[in-house]
Amino acid sequence: MRLTTTLILSCLCAGAWAEQPARPDVPPPPALNKNAADDETEPQVTITEQKGATIEEYRAGGRLYMIKVIPKVGKPYFLVDERGDGKFSRQESLDTGLRPPMWTIHRF
Q1: Tens-digit pLDDT string for the chain (108 aa)
Q2: What does the buried/exposed string (b/e) look like for 5-29 if buried means 16 or more CB atoms within 10 Å of the residue's CB?
Q3: Of 68, 71, 97, which is closest to residue 80 (Cα–Cα)?
Q4: Which of 50, 48, 43 is nearest to 66 (CA)?
Q5: What's the angle, vertex CA 87, arms to CA 85 and CA 88, rounded to 5?
Q6: CA–CA distance, 75 with 81 (Å, rounded to integer)
Q7: Strand, helix or coil at 59?
Q8: Residue 38 per-residue DSSP state
């Protein structure tokens, strides 16, 4: 009976043991024309050092889609063009904020 209960609980909780995929630091570039050359489809990164911060500009197909600002003091943040209209919105991180429930079912 104990073995059956243990097997059933372990099957139900298998998702809790699954490894979460690593979140990349940089989101993928926006969709581009499939007929473009390979050089145009890879994102280009331009790094600029300024007085109080380091700025990384990410371009794909010649279009700026994300800026990462790394200040000398403080946490880095991103400016992302989500719609492709040239208006950037600030994001503290690329985390979506989605958290799965992690309830304790039983402790042995």
Answers
A1: 677 777 676 766 665 555 545 445 566 665 555 555 555 567 789 999 988 899 999 998 888 989 999 999 988 888 888 888 888 888 776 666 677 787 888 888
A2: eeeeeeeeeeeeeeeeeeeeeebeb
A3: 68
A4: 43
A5: 130
A6: 20
A7: strand
A8: H
Report the alpha-carbon distance of residue 105 to residue 99 in Å, rounded.
18
Please give the structure tokens belonging to residue 31: 């969709």
DSSP label at 41? Answer: H
Q: For the beta carbon of residue 60, count every other beta carbon within 10 angstroms.
A: 19
pLDDT of residue 62: 84
